[in-house]
Amino acid sequence: MTVKMLFTRRGITVRHLEVGPDGARMRWVELAGAQPPTVYLHGLGSSSPAYFGQVAAATGRRSLLVDLLGFGLSDRPAGFGYTMEDHADTVATLLRAVDLDGVRVVAHSMGGAVAIVLAERHPGLVGELVLAEPNLRPAEPRALSARIARYREEEYVQTMHGRILSVIGTEWAATARQADAAAMHRSAVSLAGERDRWFLHSLCALTIPRTFLLGKHSDPLPDHRALVEAGVTVTVIPDGGHNMMLDNPKAFVEALNR
Asked: What is the number of alpha carbons within 13 Å of residue 207 lying toward its C-beta?
């Protein structure tokens, strides 16, 4: 598999790689900067350049802002499963193609679950995890992923996707409109459904450096004690909620640079 460049100017490069069925391409924005590089993974219905672009540039490090299949700049293959494992495996394919291992992965929400699975399934590729409120347990009924997962895929794609876009916040809707409806549904089902091993247990079992970022305005972290006992650093981002990298980018960058 060959990485191809689509665009480059002033230290910003857009690349793509065939990673999925029928030649589906994953795309990412790469920012030039100091080594070692950082890989960014977005949440459900989001896009890494949109959510992480400002903070990635502020770190001064080489950054790969990856859009998962079905979201953002990447292709939307109909035959892809869109499970957390599927997403993790395509990211692993990308990392191997660009000859990166032991990288720092910064991930948000669903992207955090993908990052945990990536580190568990492909341990040599990930050297550190920085997770901004990742999904660790089954989603609460009020969570968007749980609400999406309640519907049959056909019903969600044909009817509910448009309704969901009309009730979520404007920032989220801006990127969720780019997402494939089936990708949203299948990802949500994988994220919110029953699992043999929860992301919390996988995260606690990892031996690499791990940081959990919690927005000051977010709900209390029920697994705080379990995370700390497992060696996970918990850092609170002041004046931030779930989208802390947008709410307080300065504090988010400071947390990344520690």
From this structure: 2
Say how far apart CA 234 and CA 87 lie, in whole Å.
25
For residue 146, give the nearest of 192, 84, 195 by alpha carbon.
192
* Per-residue model confidence as pLDDT tens digits over 157-211: 999 998 888 888 888 889 999 999 999 999 999 998 888 889 999 999 999 999 9
Is 133 within the bounds of a domain?
A: yes
Answering whether pTM is above 0.90, one says yes
Q: What residues make up the domain containing 203?
A: 4-138+197-256
In percent, the amount of the chain with pLDDT more than 90 equals: 83
Going by C-alpha positions, the residue among 85, 86, 94 that lies closest to residue 66 is 94
User: Is 168 within the bounds of a domain?
Assistant: no
**CATH number of the domain encompassing residue 134:** 3.40.50.1820
Length of the chain: 258
Give the per-residue pLDDT at 141. Answer: 66
Number of structural domains found in the chain: 1
